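A student in our group prepared the protein record below, which I am reviewing. Here is the record exactly as it was handed to me.
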Amino acid sequence: MKKLLFLTVLFFSAIFTLNAQDVPAAPETTQQPKMNFVKLNITSVFLKNYAIQYERVLTKRISVGLSFRIMPSSTLPFKSSIINSMDNPDQQAVNAIESLKLDNIAITPEVRFYLGKKGYGRGFYIAPFYRFAKYGADNLEVTFEDNSSGNPVDRTVVMSGNLNTHTGGLLFGVQWALGKYVSLDWWILGPSFGVSSGSLLGISDTVIPEDGKTEIRNTINDIEIPMVEKSVSFSNDSKSVMVDLTGPWAGIRSGIVFGFKF
């Protein structure tokens, strides 16, 4: 993560240095355009995400941008809709989804190519981008029945872990100047594709019996993560549950973004 941040900062520093003495002059009879934008994605707030972007105009047609998104630890957005979309989920799977807490961060560098006549950060654009995202999961409660004492007892394993994704995509959008210092950026559609990998770990206070292992495996497999393959295993002492997560990953960037120009 630190290496990625260092390389991103180095990349933009090099671009700014190369263009420091080559700031484009404004067209005749027009005011010098603003070259810097700091923006806030207001639509992501409804998904419990907070996203900001810095954009630097390099030429009339080209700019570079860097976005940062964070979601503090929270329950799953739209969890009721997710539960309703599941095919005959058992109560354990429903309880696991309701107790689950998620957080995430994402860093997204991009290069924009403005295609309209105005340029300088205005008009329709296409933007190739790369995104690194890290999703954290905590408090995933998985219950199993323990009959070792002769009386059935429900026991719970609390799992946590992370999923890292690397994706690349192409964003289509349009940006307007609402005034001298204000802008409106519409991220129309930005599909992206890539890969994901991660793991979850849970530790039990007691030995997990074979029937309990089957319950845990079924509960985890009932929690659908699109395109991600889950592999459930147990430690030699049968007190730990490990879930390996691998597979392709896809996402969509979209939103209404207000900005301040300077």
